[in-house]
Amino acid sequence: MVAPGVSLVGRAGARAGQVVDRIASTAPSARPTGGHVDTILALQRFASPALDRAMFLATSIGSQEAYTALLIFAYLAVDAAFGRRLGVVFLAGAFINEIIKGVVQEPRPFEVDPAVARGDVAIDTAPGSSFPSGHAQSAALFWGLAGVHFRRAWFWLLGAFVVALVSVSRVYLGVHYPLDVLGGLGVGVAVLLLSLLLRRLAFAPGKVVTIVLGLALPLALHLSLTTPNSHVYLSAMSAFVVGPEIVAHRAKGSVVTRLLMGVLGIVLVGAVMSLTSALMPEDLKRALLPSYLRYLAIGLTGTLVAPLACRALRLSGGPVVAAGSARRH
User: Fold this and answer.
1) Residue 317 pLDDT > 80
2) Apex CA 140: angle with CA 138 and CA 144, to 5°?
3) Global pTM?
4) How far apart are alpha carbons 60 and 50 in whole angstroms?
5) Is 247 helix (H, G, I), strand (E, B) or coil?
């Protein structure tokens, strides 16, 4: 459901008349970057095959597959209300990141000096503009939101370690400048703080209004502010808004029960993603509206179909149909 720096259908947003492209065409030229390559090369003085493998592993923590699994697991196995907030805020942040990238249009370090790239695998993790780092932003936002929820010192330390590891890996691999990473961290923290402020406002419309707005607003944003992955981020965000309003889910039970619910959701989402990829023609998967609807179906598999499956298998309890707005849970 997410793609923090790695696009599933990367060309869906490259359509004529995009607002982001119009903004970018009037933006000032990207800042000079050649001198910053020296910083990357200095870090790579410690390079070795073992360190390369470790950094690739670290950067994979911020991959699309990792966050897809984590968001589904948080919603189905940890806490549904928290998982919903996490999904909406995280995906909104990913969309904001692509808006900024579209405006700044900064070249990647390996585009300035190909020698800094730690192989083709590193380049494959870095499509699009360099500033701000999507991996760093996503790590700061995800682990920051999780830290606010769990409120444990050990968890904050774990989150800080993961954020630092992911951030360093992006510079070491030659796909980001240090300033890109700092910018990503800054945007992530800003989105986190804004989400906490908005939550204090306690805006809770009724179920019907939430469903209508949850379906209409993300789609309108996708059509008017199309980015390379807006069809992924905004449709998945819509699924996190709408699904819990239709089907209630309670992440309760033993550790084994919770694990089963989380794994079931991940398997179902993966199956629908693979099935739609195999059945849909390539031109439809790249088209503006069909690509959005595809990922909306994938997202609703995680927030609507999976809870129904958990209920059918007696893994979760509670009413099948949500009685009110899930924001009040």
Assistant:
1) no
2) 120
3) 0.85
4) 15
5) strand
pLDDT confidence of residue 4: 45
All residues at 6 or more sequence positions from 238 whose CB lies less than 8 Å from its CB, including other chains: 214, 215, 218, 219, 296, 299
**Cβ 222 vs Cβ 91: under 8 Å:** no
Tell me the Ramachandran region of residue 318: left when phi exceeds 0, alpha when psi lies from -120 to 50, beta otherwise. left
Residue 28 binned pLDDT confidence (cut-offs 50, 70, 90)? very low
* 321 beta partners: 247
Domain that holds residue 240: 51-328
Question: Looking at the domain assignment, is residue 6 inside a domain?
Answer: no
* 208 in any annotated domain: yes
Considering only 57-66, 82-91, 179-188, which range has the smallest mean pLDDT?
57-66
pLDDT digits (tens, 9 = 90+) for 279-310: 999 999 999 999 999 999 999 999 999 999 99
The stretch 263-286 carries a mean pLDDT of: 95
Phi, psi for 79 (deg, rounded to 5): -160, 120
CA distance 131 to 178: 10
Taking the C-alpha atoms of residue 156 and residue 148, their distance in angstroms, rounded to an integer, is: 9
Residue 103 one-letter amino acid: V
Counted domains in the chain: 1
In a domain, 44, yes or no: no
- Sequence-ordered alpha helix ranges (H) in the chain: 19-26, 37-43, 49-60, 64-73, 80-104, 109-112, 120-124, 134-150, 153-172, 178-200, 207-224, 230-246, 255-279, 282-286, 288-300, 306-312
CA distance 112 to 34: 7
- Look-up of token digits 């800054």: 186
Helices 64-73 and 134-150, packing angle to 10 deg: 20
pLDDT at 13 over 50: no
Is 17 inside a domain boundary? no
